[in-house]
């Protein structure tokens, strides 16, 4: 089962995050073969982290909870809040298999949180949603898929990792997406993001 985990940093936790970097990477090394995508969200200037995103293939929700809440940054108080959602890997690949990197482009995490009570409408628009992304953005998508309830039965939103010219392009991607145009999102977040993992020597 695939899970999307986003941990939002507390204000002024950057120093503590830096101190825990090795402990964080060591913890994540245990999940290397299960990892689909990972990396920090950043301030617009890229100077500081604002959160941490992981998409990982795990046996069940209990394993996902352990992944999120046994992690050193969480236990030490780096994070202000943690979102754990079932997810479905629409592209069927990991971020390391993405081959569309373009010089001068930027990477973004787009999280669109669904309104409650719109399951029937989201089901009706699912084909239009897939067509929109496939026709307009296929070469720019690093990973994408629906956010789901714990049992995987209910749509709870959309998570997209994309490489695009700039932030306005990322905002346009989600603003024109069929679910957004139908008013199915309660809120949308666009974060600067980069590939994560232990730095290579």
Automatic annotation (TrEMBL):
A Pfam cross-reference name: YCII
Matches recorded under InterPro entries: Dimeric_a/b-barrel, Sec-metab_biosynth-assoc, YCII
Gene3D superfamilies: Dimeric alpha+beta barrel
Domain YCII-related: 1-88, 107-194
UniProt record similarity statement: Belongs to the YciI family.
Entry protein name: YCII-related domain-containing protein
């Amino acid at each position: 089962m695939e899970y999307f985990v986003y941990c939002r940093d507390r204000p002024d936790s950057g120093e503590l995050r830096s101190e825990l970097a090795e402990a964080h990477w060591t913890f994540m090394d245990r999940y290397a073969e299960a990892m689909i995508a990972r990396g920090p969200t950043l301030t617009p200037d890229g100077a500081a982290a604002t959160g941490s995103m992981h998409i990982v293939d795990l046996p069940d929700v209990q394993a996902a909870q352990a992944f999120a809440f046994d992690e050193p940054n969480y236990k030490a108080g780096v994070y202000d809040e943690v979102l754990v959602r079932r997810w479905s890997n629409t592209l069927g690949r990991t971020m390391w298999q993405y081959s569309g990197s373009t010089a001068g482009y930027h990477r973004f995490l787009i999280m669109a949180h669904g309104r409650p009570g719109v399951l029937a409408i989201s089901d009706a628009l699912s084909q239009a949603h897939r067509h929109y992304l496939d026709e307009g953005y296929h070469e720019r998508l690093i990973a994408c898929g629906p956010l789901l309830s714990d049992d995987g039965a209910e749509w709870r939103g959309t998570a997209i990792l994309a490489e695009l010219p700039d932030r306005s392009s990322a905002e346009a991607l989600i603003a024109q997406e069929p679910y957004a145009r139908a008013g199915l999102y309660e809120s949308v977040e666009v974060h600067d993001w980069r590939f994560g993992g232990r730095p290579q020597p």
